[in-house]
């Protein structure tokens, strides 16, 4: 979730309140009424909190048991608090309970990732910090389907609040068997005065159901696709990551940036999507990095416009894009993998850097491997009008790839988004049929409540962000989706506007 930005503009600095911290309690906070609607709002607190960066997992021992999680943000007069709250269902998504996890002294919690193991234990990884420290990576476990959670275990420590230190970011979970948990994350290193050094991908492994973890291990290697301008470690400038475990071992996907700001702030050059293979027993890298494909997502190349903070955004928007991808493994063939991301390769070039003058056409991009990640097919785009972004990937039980993502093709103005499920029409074909999941659209370009600020008077109070990722999951009979939705409105302190809720939908597996 970290904003990789250069200097804030005067307008943004004046409008953005200071970041504060929130405490954590434990237990069930509330439960939604049972619903058979096509789209179900899983949030039940009714306290004005926002929900974004959704993650979702299905219990293999009980497919009716779903665990999702999202960042829960709370607006104050001059502050914004953040924690992570799981949402738990035991009836296939018709009813949801919001759970408070006791993070034991951690007070600003972001970047959730959830995964079940084969025995039905579920794990939650987050980046968690105190009031004046860079984030740790911590993991907690539930043995009752997500209702109660163990004391969080620190996997990797952050250090410092400014100057030299370590910033841990964007953890992702994968499991195999019973009790084996693999966590990957981005570990940014800073030197004296806060100068950026490098940001490799790290991992750690637990074989005792997350009671303890191995020492953090660097796994991104020295990708030979960087400029080398920042020295020996310049090839370890990585962003985003995703992990999966196959019968042949673990695979980790990430983005490698060949040109970066001196402080590591903004992706100036285009990213390359890479994978490495990892031993899930030891966590050590066993192969790669291998090139998946080139993304068209650079600021220097004007692939996207930039918002008031200097971050990449979409047409008529101020929401920041982290440009993460996702990774999935075919359960019928452990050598068959897919990586998906989104970029602006099909937009009219060059893209105007002013979002209110730009025309964007972000598309979902997919590449697949049949040799465990060593070689990859040419990137394939899913053609659609307008912007599609933040894809999530999963293979179904027959080995067909499914993708879920935000989709602006439903709005001719390219403003409002829905959520789309793309289903591979034949195994390994990378040809897709698409279906709209959402029954209402969300407009992030204007009319949000809380932290929005106006840059263009035609688009008052735009959303500053809807997170960096969405989630889909496969059950024996369905494809389930979990995303940030802005259809509902809230009025508080004399202001009304759209808010951000975590919505769920279940589509029959066909």
Overview of the molecule:
The chain is mainly beta and about 500 residues long. Helices cover about 0% and strands about 45% of the residues. It is built from one helix and 33 strands. The strands form eight sheets. Strands 1, 2, 4, 5, 6 and 7 form a six-stranded mixed sheet that branches. Strands 12, 13, 14, 15 and 16 form a five-stranded antiparallel sheet that branches. Strands 3-33-30-29 form a four-stranded antiparallel sheet, with no helix packed on it. A hairpin with a 5-residue loop joins β13 and β14. The longest helix has 6 residues, at about 10-15.
Keywords:
510 residues; mainly beta; six-stranded mixed beta sheet; globular; five-stranded antiparallel beta sheet; single chain
What's the short version?
The chain has 510 residues and is an all-beta fold.
Q: Quick one: overall form?
A: globular
Residue runs with pLDDT of under 50 for 5 or more positions: 2-24, 224-235, 259-266
Percent strand? 35-45%
- Roughly how many Å apart are the termini? 34 Å
Largest sheet: 6 strands, mixed
Helix content: under 10%
Count of runs of 4 or more consecutive helical residues = 1
